[in-house]
Amino acid sequence: MRYRVLGDLELRQGRRWATLGAAQRRTLLAVLLCGGGQATSTTRLMDELWENDPPASAEKMIQAYVSRLRRSLGDESGMTLVTLKNGYRTHAYRLLVAPNDLDAHRFERLSEQGQRMLRQCDFAGAVDSFSAALELWRGPAFADVPPTPAVVAEAARLDEARLRATEGCLEALVRDGRHSEALPELESLAALHPLREQLSGWLMVALYRKGRQADALAVYRRLRMMLTDDLGIDPSPQLQLLHQQILQADPALLGAAAVIGG
After folding, report:
1. Domains of the chain
2. 0.85 cut: is pTM over it?
3. Which terminus of the chain has fewer Cβ atoms in its 10 Å neighbourhood, N or C?
4. Concatenated DSSP letters of the chain
5. Predicted confidence (pLDDT) at residue 56 exceeds the cutoff of 70
């Protein structure tokens, strides 16, 4: 069975992707997927499904949800969604997921490959890897799953990883000389995340390479003002150095050797 969580929660049934109609089954499957193949106790499931206020029949209700989920997975024998018992009493469930069966795992592997290629200065390869990773996204992680502590935490982790992959892809584009291609998304993303220095830094480099030195310096001034007003800190030493390089029209900014420390 294959699963997608980078957007609505879906599972592969035959040749097509399908959603689970019942909210309870979506939530149960999402929480089990957040477990990363580890056992999730019935007590934890109760807290996740009923926000720390489970009904008296919660354990029996979970058993019913598990039974219906197994039918959706074609796993009536319980070989994939495993019941763990202590004597006769169920105490946990474990969903077995192979590395290639979850889109989030494939996204993370491609992102790691992109970061490795970026460190090796294989910028074209990095763009390809990051782009393949980002193409797996169809919307916010777990978009149609009711929020629970585990789902909210995992969605936030994945959304941050998506942003880092996007930053890596844009850095690779700029360092590969494709700053014109990167510039529109850099401007848009830096506006959404004005305190992320890496984004502002590569936006400054891209603007400078386009001959827009004044605009690059304006980006730095805005960032410095926000950091000072909101956090009471100065830009990082790396960004301050970049600012000086732009003021001095340093020719190093035009080559692939340009680097902004994080």
Report:
1. 3-100 (1.10.10.10), 179-262 (1.25.40.10)
2. yes
3. C
4. --EE-SSS-EEEETTEEEE-SSHHHHHHHHHHHHTTTS-EEHHHHHHHHHTT---TTHHHHHHHHHHHHHHHHT-TT-SSEEEEEETTEEEEEEE---GGGBHHHHHHHHHHHHHHHHHTT-HHHHHHHHHHHHTT--SSTTTTSPP-HHHHHHHHHHHHHHHHHHHHHHHHHHHTT-HHHHHHHHHHHHHHSTT-HHHHHHHHHHHHHTT-HHHHHHHHHHHHHHIIIIIS-PPPHHHHHHHHHHHTT-GGGGSTT-----
5. yes
